[in-house]
User: Fold this.
Amino acid sequence: MFAPVYLDHNATTPLDPRVLEAMLPYFAEQFGNASSRHEYGRAARRAIDAARGQVAAAVGAHPTEVIFTGSGSEANNLFLKGAAANLKPGVLAVSAVEHPSVREPAKDLARQGWRLHEIAVDAEGRISASDYQEALAAGAKIVSVILANNETGVLQDIPALAGQARATGTWFHTDAVQALGKMELDFRLLNQAGVHALTVSAHKICGPKGAAALVLDKRVELRPLISGGGQERGLRSGTENVAAIVGFGLACEIAVARRHEGIAVLAALRSQLERGLAQQGATIFGQGATRLANTIFFAFPEIDGETLVAKLDRAGFAVASGSACSSASPEPSHVLRAMGVSPEFSRGAVRLSLGMGSSKQQATAFLSALAETLFQLRRLTALAG
Assistant:
């Protein structure tokens, strides 16, 4: 079976064999419901408790601050909608470069009486200090700013932003899904700075799909999205997905153990790729900002991104034209639009995101395939003209 070189790790990552092995018993002999009082149930509860401790350790939190959810999108919705439900409608501020799972619930709340303020960013994708101050001055009750952008990889100075929000009594949330495993995360320090909640997810760190968490300051009261049996401190009712939660816990432990070495390798590969891309005439978005070591978002003049992605796939390289969660939309990237990139140029954007299996050989082969693909596309354009 033909298997392209996988260069789309920001969309999802391959399941680590060790994680799969740890999960397997919970699909078979250890099948108990964690709410049951007998030994099958107690075994499931012990497994969840152990995983909760692993996730907490990975992000510098206390286990009681970890609320398991089914996805990062659910965790983002839980915080925004759950916090808003316990407040009188006012100003809700989210950055203009948020993931759809923050943008869309924010729009939902705007239809329910909240005043939505989209915080502007500069040409590199960094939060505009003046517009952020304007949002706080307007009385923002809830703020959500993504830590590491899923398209550009650009990092925001979350401690500084949260510190400013703290002075106004604002609830502050950050989507840290792309950051987990790629940089140090310390919820205790972030919490002291003013962060009340952050979101993490398993399938971005070689864990399973179907497990994520909202790490939540226990002083924050949320109204649950799902009511029922009272699981997860009453914030996420429903029988727990024990196998996925177990996998999430181990994936966190592995990701933290290899983080420092992995970042150095990924940074070297990114530099190799960006040199090659520059030589071929690419514009790299957010290059002037601090970014994740694994992410490159680029475009070539007069080259359509979807076409380039399709041709690279046929050449044996799996890349993306943007966020996997918004790939159904034909519109240009809202992240690039917020950065001031023209719609025409935005349509050429391609995201390349590296992972632990990426290598120098793959990077060299990709640049070679890209050069050939660009040559073919430009020749066709010239013939058509």
About this structure: The mean pLDDT is 95.
